[in-house]
Structures are given as C-alpha cells and as structure tokens.
Amino acid sequence: MSLKDKLVTEGMKLAANPNVTKLMQDERLMRLFMTAMSVPGRVSSFTTEQKETFAKTMGLATSDELRDLKRTVAALEREVTRLRKAAGEG
C-alpha cells in the first residue's frame, strides 16, 4: 500500500468519526483550515514579487522577461527570413 493510499484510508476513517464531523462543522476551524490551505500560494506570490523587485533594482532581467525577449527575437528572425526571400524573388 502506497503512502497516498494509506493517507486516503486514514482520512476516510477520520471523516467517519463523529467527533471529527462535529469539529468540521465549526466555522472557526474551517476558516482556519482554509487560511492554512492558502498560505503556500501567498508565500509563492510574495517570493515572486520580491524576486521581480530585486531584479528590477539590480537592473537584471527576470526569467519571464527573457522568455518574452526570446520569443520576440525568434519572431523577428522569421520576419527577416521572410523579407529576404520576398526581396530575392522580386
């Protein structure tokens, strides 16, 4: 039995427990649970913002900016190739 299967099995046992059901109906506990579930996303967005701020302060390009620049360069190269072909044919 894998760890995931074991966790699912134990979770189902807990969900069937009347005491746990009573706790799950408590609005405060559910609010706390939902807040705890949102923490990783908040931390991720905060660190992303901090990385971007640091990169701008240091005059560096972020990975997103580099990816956009590479796309732009590739599109321009295709356009130059197309224009050269058109000029050679004309």
Largest sheet: none
Distance from first to last alpha carbon = 70 Å
Given the helix and strand composition, which structural class is it? mainly alpha
Beta-strand percentage? under 5%
Mean pLDDT: 89
Q: Count up the helices.
A: 4
Short description:
With 90 residues, the chain is mainly alpha-helical. It has four helices and no strands.
Map the helices and strands.
Blueprint: H1 3-16, H2 18-24, H3 27-58, H4 63-89
Give a structural overview.
By secondary structure, the chain is an all-alpha fold. It has two domains: 1-58, no CATH class; 60-90. The chain has four helices and no strands. It has helices at residues 3-16, 18-24, 27-58, 63-89. The protein is elongated, with a radius of gyration of 27 Å. The N and C termini lie far apart (70 Å). The model has no long low-confidence stretch (mean pLDDT 89).
